[in-house]
Structures are given as structure tokens and as C-alpha cells.
Amino acid sequence: MTEVSHRNVKLTDGFWKKRQDIIKDVTIKSVYDRFFDTGRVEAFEMKWKNGDKNMPHVFWDSDIAKWMEGVSLFSEITPENIEKIENLIDLIEAGQDENGYFNIFFTVVEPENRFSKRTEHELYCAGHLMEAAVAYYRTTGRDRFLRIMCRYADHIEQVFKNEKSAAFTTPGHEEIELALVKLYSATGEKRYLELAKFFIDERGNRLEHTYGGFTDGLYDQSFLPVREQKTAEGHCVRACYLYSGMADIARIYDDEELKNACEMIFDDIVKHKMYVTGGIGSTHLGEAFTIPYDLPNRTAYTETCAAISLAFFAHRLQLMEPKAVYAEVIEKVLYNGFLSGLSLDGKSFFYENPLEIIPELRTKDVCMKEQPHIPITERLEVFSCSCCPPNVIRFVAEIGENVYTYDDDTVYVHQFMSGEAEFDGIKISQETEYPLNGKVTIKYEGPAKKLAVRVPSFCEDIENENGYVFFDVDNGMVTEIDFGMPVYCVESNPRVYENCGRYAVMRGPVVYCAEGKDNGKYLRDITLDFSSDIEEIYNEEMSLPVLEMKGFRRKPEEKLYYKKKDDCEEITVKLIPYFAFANRGESEMLVWMQVK
Amino acid sequence: MTEVSHRNVKLTDGFWKKRQDIIKDVTIKSVYDRFFDTGRVEAFEMKWKNGDKNMPHVFWDSDIAKWMEGVSLFSEITPENIEKIENLIDLIEAGQDENGYFNIFFTVVEPENRFSKRTEHELYCAGHLMEAAVAYYRTTGRDRFLRIMCRYADHIEQVFKNEKSAAFTTPGHEEIELALVKLYSATGEKRYLELAKFFIDERGNRLEHTYGGFTDGLYDQSFLPVREQKTAEGHCVRACYLYSGMADIARIYDDEELKNACEMIFDDIVKHKMYVTGGIGSTHLGEAFTIPYDLPNRTAYTETCAAISLAFFAHRLQLMEPKAVYAEVIEKVLYNGFLSGLSLDGKSFFYENPLEIIPELRTKDVCMKEQPHIPITERLEVFSCSCCPPNVIRFVAEIGENVYTYDDDTVYVHQFMSGEAEFDGIKISQETEYPLNGKVTIKYEGPAKKLAVRVPSFCEDIENENGYVFFDVDNGMVTEIDFGMPVYCVESNPRVYENCGRYAVMRGPVVYCAEGKDNGKYLRDITLDFSSDIEEIYNEEMSLPVLEMKGFRRKPEEKLYYKKKDDCEEITVKLIPYFAFANRGESEMLVWMQVK
User: Fold this and answer.
1) C-alpha–C-alpha distance, residues A452 and A466, integer Å
2) Neighbours of A555 (CB within 10 A)
3) A-B interface: how many C-beta pairs under 8 angstroms?
4) Whole-angstrom Cα distance, residue A464 to residue A453?
5) Are A411 and A6 in contact (CB under 8 A)?
6) In degrees rounded to 5, what are phi and psi of residue A439?
7) Over the stretch B222-265, which tens digit does the pLDDT of each residue have?
């Protein structure tokens, strides 16, 4: 299978073009401004001294790097952003050591501790800077940043692989593995690929230091050599960045053992550890996977970055084999657990994306000074740990890479987005309002091939082979297909204790939720009447309809307990797409509802 | 209203006589032995020195004191237990300061800190020792212990009320208030009553030190002067011991303002903060009340001592006014959230009494060394903080005090227990197997009066005035009444988010639950068919029937999410009394179930 880069897929209109425009028009500037306000840009000047305020954090390099990458992943960069990026590159060049090393924290705060604190994101920051350099080079052709990062990569190779002089052997936060693969693909320098493989091969051969509260090995996926790992464990973003790197190496080296490990781990996530939104991470403790079927909704961690990282992983598996489950998971992430991380106006973000909000429970422990951790209820423009906002930029910028793959015989259409793609002598375009409706018109120009179009799992009317329907196409042929866009209820495995007796409403790939703003408080008490007519009312800002249907809620009671009477009143329930929750101030929110 | 002491109410057979026998035959010895093993008895020798193992804990005095009280509350004490108690009194006498002070921790560990550490249970221990001394005196007539504790009370009066020389003005853990009332009633010395009132009047006039993590004032009910408090707040046992003392003082001083505060607080508990089992305490953080309607089942704290303390509070309110809600709450506690604290064999205990157990979720945070707090799943014979076991002994020993109250015109029958009572020229006896069935035969001997018999709220066939049915009785009259003993479903207020769509099964006053031992795993997925026949199968050990009925559970699935199909299989569901859960090893357990 061959990848079709997002650079070859131009979105022309529809759902995702609109989001890309918001990112370009609003988000990029807003994220930069907040990073500027919080000292992240200034930190690159390396002027901080002991005693100064605003000490650079160990992961600030990566925040800015992801912003630089995100901007650079679009086909055009505004002059203003070119200037910002060039200024940053100036600072990086000036701050780089003669030996190639670059890291703000370990230059101005703890220069004596370079490559000795495994947990402190040094290689993680290096990885993100490499990704940024690659993206900037590919869009602009300017290679100064790329050369800077190659020098740093050379230094890392020297220290970790050749001299083995660092105090640890594998990164405490994975990321550099997949970044080195990109550096290799941009430069053709195989040493970078081999360094990525080296970090992957070394992982789990020995226990290395992690944060105090974490059982050695699980938190950072070092509990076994990676080829022997069968389950998704530990910190979700760390995990899926690693798994993405593993999948890259498995594909490029044709490493069956590594591919098997990737498949088993992905299977574990999809069958046991993923929310219906595509979110992952059931607990804030370690921002981690827990045990199978433990998917609490109100305390879900489900970090925006974790959803993105799961899509990265699925995307790389898809490059090896066109199983529909990969595209299904990517679609789940795109329309739900990822997109909820961004406000409709493009300015603010969720780090955590719970599936239920009851505002008053955030401060329920009235006699305690400090409340236990519960996700916040309104998006913010910046966080102290602000990894998600720039990750959103880059993920939307390169969203097109998820649409197509191909091999000698077949062009696969995995996602449905209006746009034009060109690759390998083929031109292919889609016209669609998906997921507003299920109609997709695909125009193919190129040599005779098979066209494999994914049939979304909600579509039960189109016969398919393992999730794809195949057409013979020749130059100029137009294929029209209509998946429909049904509203339906989903149940979860009986072992998911939180959801027993409850159902999620979906419309096509989009999970819906009820909000207090529309439905008042005590949403868990509402029962939907799914036999009633469901009205769809188009909402411009959401690009999708809001749903209205009949429902019931029990009448208010003074007593706390009483003999079962289920004294209900009929109500109209309004559901909105999950990704659009919390855009109107603090409010209750619920995905898993009672259904009659 | 006049109290009828448990000393005037002799249980002759039935449910509670059996429990009293288990306490006398098994529990008393077992608790003493565990206290002996853990150094609690030896600690009274005051030989511990810095560097020794087994440092006496600040609340060990109270553990032993409650055991002494529990033993002494029975009408007969075995010679063996008399010897143990006399030995302990010897040690207390020897350890008492010339000025009357007695406390193990503040004699052998921190003698320099007497009456300076408000949080460290000094007056709490004093209170429990006073209660023990009163009970021992009342049963044996021996007044040595009583005199010792009077000397201590005199010293406390001197330090706190007269000199005001202590570093704090009110106890960090209330208890001594109600104890001083008992000391007053045993000695007739009004100064003790006034000292109780002093501590109550002083509370909340100023902020005093509490543990670091707690917002000043709420945790220890010092956020307002007690007469201005309207809600139940903070640590539940502290709270209800205080409220009990407040109710005592309100009654004895005829203090309307204080009575109103007690009633409003009780109302807040019963309408907003009490589990269907009569348990209180929604969080382990501060072992505390939280906000209204926050009643999570799996993480319920619901300490055994807290249930007991709620019954103490209700009992004292009942002495002021015969509202049925007081007896209803006491009954709820007795048959459910209190009794679950004791194993069927009388040997082991729960400190926490959750309404749901899913064993694997106790260790779900696989990548963490330390798991977050979740209640244990099997009872233990002793805890490091072992307040509950001896509290169980004394509560069962004096259970008879909840049965009757009377005034000039009327004798009230609040609880149903086979036995004979004598008070104020009246003899009254009950014959009943309650709650095995609802038949109660009451024989009255004495002057013509009204007999007010509480009609349990599950009985809907007997006309009553505010929960009591009134009979005119004369000497020798026998009243027969049958409340029935229906099996029924209870729903909770729609605001109780955890229980929406779920129901508790009750049989009379007894809450039932499903256990994994009988029904396999994934209990939350079971739906009871309440229209089917319910079979009652008598269980000797529980003194009650187990229930069998038809139900459904969804068939096992491999997928995590799928279109709603509710593919169910019919099963037989077995329910046991909630109080009997976890007597067969670790297992899932659930109270709030789905019902069709």
C-alpha cells in the first residue's frame, strides 16, 4: 500500500474544508498569541536565568514546534507566519550547541542534566522539532531548519546509539521514533530510520526510571520488549506515539513480528479500551489506559492528543493493510473525540473530553480544600500543559492524508471529504456533504483500476467485502454512492459497566449528546422515545443537524426514596453533535442515555 | 416523651435476639482478642517508650472504651469479662494523673501536648471512657470507673470552661457532648450537663484548627454556631455525634432553637444525603457528606459508625417528638447499612459499606503503584482504625432502647422485636418474627392508655396518622396487627444521578442485593422481570428469605459498540439481603438494578 500525502489531497468544500479555514483564519493566530503571552516564544531566546519568573517548562519546545509544524503543513504559509517561523529558526540556530544539541530547559535551567533525566521530555521535544523542520522544508523548500535538526539527530545518534553515554536508553515520552522516520523520508538518510528502529528495539529490554507513582514499565510501555507486547498500556499519548513509530518501522522493514504486535495492541484498544467517541484514556492517573471495559464517562480523561495519536496509529496500520476498522476508528476520532477538543469558533480547547458533565460534582467535596480531579467544563485558550491546541492545528492541516491509499490494482477511498487528489498519474475527486448526508460522487481519472470505497458500518444496505465495496473504474468514470445518514442507537458491550441500560445516539459517524442548555438539568433521568419522529434541524455553525425527539423525564420529587411509580412527563429532547458540546457556557452534558 | 432504656427491654427471640446472642457468644471475645493482639490492651499499661514498636494511636483509648461499654450494656457480664474490665480499670486508675487527666497517647507519646492538638481525639477518647464508665456502673453498681471518669470530667471542666487554658475550645472530634449528658444522667451532677452544653454553645463561634486538607469549619461542623446550622456537613460520625449531643441538650433544656437546627439538619440528611440503606457519607475524602443527591454506590464511604451515629441522632429526635420518620430511619439503619458492617458469623467487619462492588475496579489503574481509594471487598476482624467493631457491639447491646417511648397518654411502639418491656408501671410484650413476616402481637398490661404503633411505610393497607396507628388499650389487652411483608421496588429522586433508570428491591424494611456468587459477573447488565413470580427461600443464617425471580441479561459480545439490538437471554436472578453481602468471599455486588 502506498500513502497519499495530505499535500496531494486538496479539500475544496464541505465539513473539513470549513474546519481547515477556521484553523487557518482563527486558531493559528490565537494559539501563537497565547504561546507568546505565556512566555513560550520568548523562551527560545534562552535568556532565562535562575530567579527569573516564567521558568521554561520541559515541554515548551514541543508546544512551539507543533505550532510551527501545523502552520507548515498547509500548502500556503502567510508572510506573517513565515516571519514568525524564521524568527524562531533564528533563535533555534543561535541556541543550538556546537555538537548539535538543542533544548531550552536543559540549556537555561538544568544544563548539567542533559540526557540524564529520562522523564523530562528531551527526546520528545527533539522529535517535535524534527517534524516541524520536515514540514517547513516540504512546504517552502527552505532547508535551514531541516539541517539544524539533522545536526541534532546526528548528535542524538552519537550519544544514544554509538557512545551509549546517556543516562537512559529509551525516551521517557515516545515521539522521536515516528519523527525520525519522517526525517529519514525527507532527507533519505537511512541512519535516521535506523535510529528510530534502535529506540524501538531497545524499549522494554530493561526497566528504566519513570515517575514515582507509576509501576515500572507499564506507564511508558517498557514492561516488555515491544514485539512481545499484546495490550495497550500506560500513558495513552506516549503509547500511541510509540505504536505509530512501531507501525512505521514494521512497514518499512517488513517486520512481521512488529506488525503482529501492532495489530494485537490495536485490537485491544478497539475491543476493550476505546470510548464510542474514539477517545482513549480512562483515567487522569497517568493519563492512561486502565483495564478492559473500564470506560467511565464523567471522569474520562480522553485527552485530545490521545485521540489524535490513536488516529496516527490507525493511519499507519492502514498503510500496511486496508482493513475497514482502521478507517472506522479514524472516522470515529475525527468527528467525535478529537473534534470535541476544539471550540466551534476555533479559539479554545479541551485537553480532556469526558462523555458526561455534571457541573456541581466538580466541587462536591464541600469540606475539602482541594477537589479531586474532574475534567473542566469549559474550553480554554491555553493550558499550562498546552500540548493539545497546536496538535489540533497540525492534525486538521494534514487531515487529507487519511482519505486515500493505493496499491498496484486498487485505489482505496477511506474517508469522505469534498476535494481533489493527484498521485501517481491518477486524479480523483470527491463531491460530498458527508456527514450532512451520505451521498458521495467520486470522479476518477487515470488508468483502469479497482476503486475500493469504504462502506461506513452504519450503512447496512450496501453489500461489501470486509467493509469496502469494489468498482472497476476507468479514465473519466464517475461513481455515485449513497450511504444514507441514519439516526440510530448504539449499545456497548455488556461488560462496560457504566453503560448498561444506556445507549448512545449516533447519526452516521457522529455521536450526539444532550446538553443542559437545551434540556435542563438531570439529563441521566431522561428517557428517549426512539419510536417517535426524529426531527433534524440544520445548524450552520455545527454543519450538521440538531436532533429533536420525544422523551420522558420523571416529575420532580421531594422524597429521596419511594415505591417505584415512574411518574413521568413527556418532553422534547434536543441532541447536538458531541463535538459541539460546551460551546454555550457551563452545562450538563450526557452521551449515554436511557432509551425506550 | 420519656425514654425506655434498653435495660427495660428484654429481647426474647427473633431477629435481634439472635444477633445479640452472636455478639455475646462470638463478637465480644473476638474483638477483645484482636485488640489484645494489636497492642491496644497493653497500651493501657502506659509502658510505651520512644523507639518501641506499636506506638499507641490517639484513638486506642476509645476502641477499648467502646468494647468495655458494649460488654457492660448487656444485662449480664460474664466473670471473664468482668475480670478483663476490672483489669483495664486498674490500669486506667493507675494511669490517671492526680489532676484527673487520662489519655494514653498524650501520656506516653506526647505528654507535652495535652489539650493542645485539637485534631487528636483527646476529648473523643474521654467521652467514650465516660460512656463506658456509665454503662459499667449501671449494670454492676460498681462506681470506681465512674468516679475516675468524674474526676477526669471535672478536670476537663476546669481546663476548658473555667480556666480556658487549653489551646482550643471545642473538640476536633465530637463525642464528649453526648457522653457528658450520660455522665450527668448517671450521677445527677448538673455541671456535666452544663459542660456538654458549653461545648455545643461554643462550637462555631470561631474557626479552630482542623486537618490540613479540609476547609475550615465544614469538616468538623464549626462553620457556624450550631443553632444557625441548617445542613449536615463534614465528617459524618463527627457530625451525627454532635447532632446527638445537640438533640440531648435541646430536649433537656427545652431549647427550641437548637431543636429546630436538629430538625433541619436531619431533614437535610433524609431528603438529600442518605443512602437507601440508611448509610451516610458519600466520600472517603474526609469520610464526609458531600452535596445533595450525590450518592455514588461503588465508592460510597457509608461507614458502619456513621450509620450507627445517624440512628443515635434519630433516636434522640424521637425522644422529643414521635415522628415516624425517625423510627423509619432507625429501622433502615438497623436492617441495612449498619448490619452490613458485621459478618453473619459475628467475627468480622466492614468499615465502609458500599452499595456496589466490582472487584477488578479496585486495581484498575494498572500503571499506578498506588490505587485510588475504593472500599475493601471482604470483611476484616480488625482495622488499624478499628472504631466500628466495638461500636457494633454496643449498638446491638442497646438496640432495645429504640423500641418504645411514652408520654402521659400514649405508649409508642416504634420498632418490632420479640421481647418484654417494663417501665413506669407498664408491662408490654411483643411476639413477632418481624421482618420475616409482618405479624406483630402486642400484649399490654397497665393503666388504660393509647397505644401508638408505627406502620412501616411499605405497608399501604393500614390507615394511620402520620405513620402511627392508635389503639385504646387497657390492662391485659392483646393487639394483633399484620403489616404484610411485600417485595417491592424503590426508585430514588430523579436528581440522584447514579440511580436513574435503576431500582432497589426491598422486602419490608430490608434492602436486597445481587451478588456475583449467585448471579455471575456484570450484574449491572441484569434486568429483573418484576412481573414474574418471586420465590422466597428461607435462609437460616440470614433469618430471612433469599429471593428468586426471572430476569434477563444481554448475551456476551466480542464487539465494544454495536447498533442497539438488546439480544438478551432469560436467567434466574437470586437476591439476598444487603446486610448479608460479602459473606462468601470476594464477589460482585449490586443494589440498584435495572427492572422491567
Assistant:
1) 11
2) 11
3) 201
4) 9
5) no
6) -85, 130
7) 999 999 999 999 999 999 999 999 999 999 999 999 999 999 99
The predicted pLDDT at position A547 comes to 98
B7-36 average pLDDT score: 98
Q: Whole-angstrom distance between the N-terminal and C-terminal Cα of chain A?
A: 45
pLDDT at B466: 93
Q: Which of B358, B363, B490 sits opposite A561 (nearest CB)?
A: B490
Measured between beta carbons, which residues in chain A are less than 8 angstroms from residue B235? 367
Over residues B39-43, the mean pLDDT reads 97
If you average pLDDT over residues B134-142, what whole number do you get? 98
Give one word for B6, left, alpha or beta, with left for phi > 0 and alpha for psi -120 to 50: alpha
Cβ–Cβ below 8 Å for A497 and B276: no
**Across the interface, do B494 and A525 touch by the CB < 8 Å criterion?**
yes
User: Cell for A85?
Assistant: 517561523
Cβ(B543)–Cβ(B573) below 8 Å: no
Quote the CA–CA distance of A155 and A150 in Å, as a whole number.
9
**Angle between the N-to-C axes of helices A60-73 and A28-37, in degrees from 0 to 180, rounded to the nearest 10:** 160
- Cα-flanking dihedrals φ and ψ of residue A387, to 5°? -70, -35
Q: From the list B290, B369, B553, which residue is nearest A365 (CB)? A: B290
Flag whether pLDDT at B215 surpasses 90: no
Closest in A360, A492, A524 to B561, CB measured: A492
pLDDT tens sequence across B369-414: 999 999 999 999 999 999 999 999 999 999 999 999 999 999 999 9
Q: Give me the pLDDT at residue A212, please.
A: 87
pLDDT exceeds 90 at position A577 = yes
Examine the pLDDT at A215 and tell me if it is beyond 90: no
- pLDDT over 90 (residue B169): yes
- Residue-wise pLDDT for B467-479, tens only, equals 999 999 999 999 9
Complex prediction ipTM: 0.97
The number of C-alpha atoms within 13 Å of A303 and in the hemisphere containing its C-beta is 25
- Mean pLDDT of all residues in B469-495: 97
Q: Cβ A524–B367 below 8 Å, yes or no?
A: no
Chain B residues within an 8 Å CB radius of A209: none
> Which residue in the set B212, B290, B493 is minimally distant from A559, CB to CB?
B493
Residue B213 and residue A370: Cβ atoms within 8 Å? yes
Residues 6 or more apart in contact with residue B248 via CB below 8 angstroms: B177, B178, B181, B196, B316
At A216 the pLDDT is: 79
Pull the grid cell for residue A52. 527569573
What average pLDDT does range A235-250 have in this prediction? 98
Q: Quick one: closest CA in B to A503, which residue?
A: B564
Pairwise CB contact (< 8 Å): B358 & A497: yes
Mean pLDDT of A165-185: 98
Q: Which residues of B touch A502 (CB under 8 A)?
A: 501
Does residue A170 carry a pLDDT above 90?
yes
- Give, in order, the Cα–Cα distances in Å from B359 to each of A492, B343, B375, B590: 21, 19, 10, 12
Residues 6+ apart with CB under 8 A from B111: none
HSE toward the beta carbon, residue A546, CA cutoff 13 A: 17
Confidence at residue B216, expressed as pLDDT on a 0 to 100 scale: 79
* CB within 8 Å of A280: residues ≥ 6 apart: A232, A236, A240, A269, A273, A274, A289, A302, A306, A307, A310, A337
Burial A512-531 (b: 16+ CB within 10 A, else e): bbbbbbbbeebbbbbbbbbe
Cβ–Cβ gap A560/B492 under 8 Å: yes
**Pairing of the two strands A527-528 and A592-595:** parallel
Asked if B355 contacts B11 with a C-beta cutoff of 8 angstroms, the reply is no
Query: Which residues share a beta bridge with B280?
Result: B274
A369–B595 C-beta distance less than 8 A: no
